[in-house]
DNA sequence: TGTTAACCGAGACGGTACGTCGCGTCTTTCT
DNA sequence: AGAAAGACGCGACGTACCGTCTCGGTTAACA
């Protein structure tokens, strides 16, 4: 992959990306993912990556700066697939499928490890957080056609006044799953996925994700002022 | 709270919980929280706790086993407040207030630190994860009266066939916020909170959280089988 | 060796010198000397000492601070022998023997290594320099009886006016050897040693090392002021 | 000195010594000396020389092989001055002046640095040692006229049987100073210098440096056999 | 006057050792 | 007997400098 327009590290390794440099980069990314699967994020060490990639520790620091950089780069790689949202013929079907995909990927013992490892990493590394943020931004952008199709099918009211917020709708279908998986750490299954999808559809039908109408709704907010902390230890 | 019925570490420190032991435990918990605020979870060290609590490192290991134990114990403490859900007179108002509390507590630079630190800790420590899970379980249990009031007010259909799932409803109102805060790491404000509350209410009205009817809904699920990974790097 | 009143490092390892601490110290000193013999000073590494002494690198730094400290400590050990100056029955004989000892010890391939290593170390470490200085101070102090005997034998004029400077005399006998060994790096043999001894004796007879007369001699110095540098690259 | 007849490195840089090559070499030598003054020998790095000379690191290795070569080359430069020994009109005066020069050059904080740095370097580099050796050889050769004048003045007995060893005499006057400066690391001042000069003169008068008589003296050596090590740690 | 070989600048890299941090264990000493 | 105090083994950190290599670009000697 001689082309690599995105700049993971501004320092070395970006000026002469031919030959060895590129091979090195790929090896490193593989090692990072392998390390995540093997030990999880907290157990991932630079030295492990060095050993398993055949790239010397010093070089890793030179080019990626730190573990954070390594992870961010690995995430870039992960984002470069050609995933497309499901297309089942109905909005609820699509969202269900989407939600079930989430559940499946984080339930499967193999794939879940590296995924949650990166989410964990985002808590400790600005760089990883940014990479993760970009990753999901991209994912949900790819979901827009899903909503578009629903509008075309007439399942959602034609968006006269600004259109429906496709991103918000997709997020709504996934949010409860991630919440349960990584915050409250409750068990999730397909039932949970289906419920999340159903809730999102219901909210969409109620116009919650229609920006223009949102204005009206917000206007009626009673602006409760609380000082207590609810969901925070 | 002189005695500690729940046993964080079964070994020493549980036999003679009077006097010094109790004082020690409190000091340790304070130090843990202070450490979290100061350095975040990844920067929290046993040695820091030892210094700031006046309890020797060796003792910390004897009684709490490791950092995980220290955190879990501190979480127990955090859960022992007398928080109650908001009561604004309407279901949507209550949920909005609830959601805004979440946003406020994780937006405030002071309170957000220790909160997200513990969530981060849960990724690296089984013990912390369990403690966090219990914490949220308790919180959402306390939200049941909120839903109950709505039913009594007639805002929600009387729960003839098993009643509404209060926990699911409350979670639905909070999930999108946590999702954006800690997974996709998008900016969150009161508008987001209001939208989340509205979506939850809409879903509730549509009967999504009514178990009995849930059966029916699930029955219509087309059981899409996907192998791709959607939301996972 | 439970006693060890001299404090090589003020930090750890000095408070509780019982048992392990003492054993550790001896092992480390052996490893240091072995390292010097094997690689010379520039090739001596802390990691080598760690491996060959069985004491962990971290501990070495904790107790000795750095390579310098390790060397200084090893020097202390070396100084703790019971060397006494030769006693051949005549001043010149004694000085010859002394000078030949020097030549022998730095000519022998085995013993010379660690010796010159420490001299080399003194160039790079204040601590090693101090230790070396103390070592020679002690050695030459032990030579005083040698001169004393010569006075008693009548070989040297009775020291009426302040006595002869025993240290200066002994140093005079050794200086040319060290000079040739380590500065000009010329070959040195027993002939050189004998010449140095003879020169020292001649100077002593001429009263060069008799402080009181020194005053007179110095008075006649013409105080040449030169700006050029003679012996310095 | 455009061309460089002596070959520090037989490889590159010797075939086309015109223009840039010569300029480069001078710049490098300056940088080496500057580095010595700034950080001392142990702190002198190839990278420093590269930066401060404007010559790339790779080139330094190509032409000088290593730090040692750089130093040896710099020493060659230092030896190429037109120093001559003092001429005060008397042997002792000359030697005093000589000795005081030594003291002065190694006492002055500016000039002493690079001088002792090179002596230190000789401990770690064969090449530097050879260069240093040659340097002093040359210096003491230049001192021969000094002794010659004394003979002509009648201060020293006419050298009938092989003449006096001028080199040994000059060395004798300097040795105690270097010994104290770099071995025992005692303070030295002009008094020390004068004493050294006086001792050398006395020894010379006693015929110590007259080779022919040396034979006789050595014959009387009693060949003491010692096993202890005197001056060596 | 071109060619061509020697040389140089630039940058990345594998590698050794550094000196430090924090962990978790152990021993010793106090009370 | 439990706790305080300290030393230690241990693994990993992030850095400095080493010496090597590859890649272009320049330059000087020679055809």
How would you describe what is shown here?
Four copies of one chain form a homotetramer. With 233 residues, chain A is an all-alpha fold. The first copy, chain A, folds into two domains: 60 residues, Arc Repressor Mutant, subunit A (Orthogonal Bundle), CATH 1.10.10.60; 121 residues, Tetracycline Repressor, domain 2. Chain A is 64% helix and 0% strand. The longest helix of chain A has 20 residues. The radius of gyration of chain A is 21 Å and the shape is elongated. Chain A starts with 19 loop residues before the first helix and ends in a 14-residue tail after the last helix. Chains in contact: A-B, C-D. Chain C binds a DNA duplex (31 and 31 nucleotides) through helix 1 and helix 3.
Short description:
The structure is a homotetramer of 233-residue chains. Chain A has eleven helices and no strands.
CATH class term of the largest domain in chain A:
Mainly Alpha
Number of helices of chain A: 11
The average pLDDT value of chain A, as a whole number, equals 82
Low-confidence stretches of chain A: 1-10, 216-231
Assembly type of the shown chains? Answer: homotetramer
Instruction: Indicate the CATH topology of the largest domain in chain A.
Output: Tetracycline Repressor, domain 2
Q: Major β-sheet of chain A, in short? A: none
Which chains have the largest interface?
A-B, 81 and 82 residues
Q: What structural class should be given to the helix and strand makeup of chain A?
A: mainly alpha
CATH architecture of the largest domain in chain A: Orthogonal Bundle
How many strand units of chain A? 0
């Amino acid at each position: 992959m001689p082309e690599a327009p995105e700049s993971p590290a501004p320092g070395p390794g970006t000026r002469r990306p031919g030959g060895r440099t590129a091979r090195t980069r790929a090896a490193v990314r593989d090692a990072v993912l392998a390390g995540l699967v093997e030990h999880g994020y907290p157990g991932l060490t630079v030295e492990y990556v060095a050993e398993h990639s055949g790239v010397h520790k010093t070089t890793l620091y030179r080019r990626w700066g730190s573990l954070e950089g390594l992870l961010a780069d690995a995430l870039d790689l992960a984002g470069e697939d050609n995933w497309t949202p499901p297309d089942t013929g109905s909005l609820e079907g699509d969202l269900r499928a989407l939600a079930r995909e989430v559940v499946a990927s984080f339930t499967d013992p193999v794939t879940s490890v590296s995924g949650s490892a990166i989410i964990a990493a985002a808590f400790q590394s600005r760089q990883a957080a940014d990479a993760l943020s970009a990753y999901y931004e991209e994912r949900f952008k790819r979901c827009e056609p899903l909503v578009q199709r629903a509008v075309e099918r007439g399942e959602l009211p034609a968006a006269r006044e600004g259109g429906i917020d496709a991103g918000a709708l997709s997020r709504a279908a996934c949010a409860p799953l991630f919440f349960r998986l990584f915050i409250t750490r409750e068990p999730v299954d397909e039932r949970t996925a289906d419920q999340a999808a159903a809730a999102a559809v219901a909210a969409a039908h109620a116009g919650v994700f229609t920006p223009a109408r949102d204005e009206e709704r917000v206007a009626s907010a009673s602006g409760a002022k609380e000082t207590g902390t609810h969901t925070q230890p």
